[in-house]
Amino acid sequence: MVRVMVVDDHPMWREGVARDLTEAGHEVVATSGEGRQAIRVAPAARPDVVVLDLQLPDISGVEVIRGLRAALPQVRVLMLSASGEQQSVLEAVKAGATGYLVKSAAPAEFLDAVRRTATGEPVFTPGLAGLVLGEFRRLAAGGGTGPSDAGNDAAPRLTDRETEVLRLVAKGLSYKQIAQRLELSHRTVQNHVQNTLGKLQLHNRVELTRYAIERGLDG
């Protein structure tokens, strides 16, 4: 069961998403139609995942992501938007979103995305994952700064297996694909990723992917 907060300014859509989540066995801990309200409510609701619309009436979804991450650094944010425009996706990811799904996604795809987002796995509408990886490579080549640049003067030592998993993360492989490649269980791969996140003081696999790319581990 995943604790989920739904933020969308369309009542029917918000209620429908909340209903689907509840029927799937998750706990909807809060809903909101405004960004500022969502940021205020989140610390008390303590969701694992926030399903967030990009376009809100008061502030942008990107601003909400930043506010949520400041209030709850460990929270995962899944953008659920009608827009699949490249700039919107990149801005959301740079702000700290774990995944980005367009609203035309099937219910089963959405519910799977919520479950995967809760584990820290980046989930993107088909075609967008490559865009994000490409942008991370571009920023790394240009010496761009970001969450993964902080505190790396003396980076913690990773085990050989953690480094091996990290290389595959940088290539954009899913947990399932990494597990198959290394002949490990899905849970073991997830544990390696979580251990690596803790050592590097990063919050999610999006940040971890950028960290790895900046260090040339995607080659």
TrEMBL record:
It comes from Micromonospora mirobrigensis. Residues 151-216 form the HTH luxR-type domain. Gene3D superfamilies: 3.40.50.2300. GO terms for biological process: phosphorelay signal transduction system; regulation of DNA-templated transcription. GO terms for molecular function: DNA binding. This is Two component transcriptional regulator, LuxR family. SUPFAM superfamilies: C-terminal effector domain of the bipartite response regulators, CheY-like. The modification 4-aspartylphosphate is found at residue 53. Keywords: DNA-binding, Phosphoprotein. Residues 3-118 form the Response regulatory domain. InterPro entries: CheY-like_superfamily (IPR011006), NreC/VraR/RcsB-like_REC (IPR058245), Sig_transdc_resp-reg_C-effctor (IPR016032), Sig_transdc_resp-reg_receiver (IPR001789), Tscrpt_reg_LuxR_C (IPR000792), WalR-like (IPR039420).
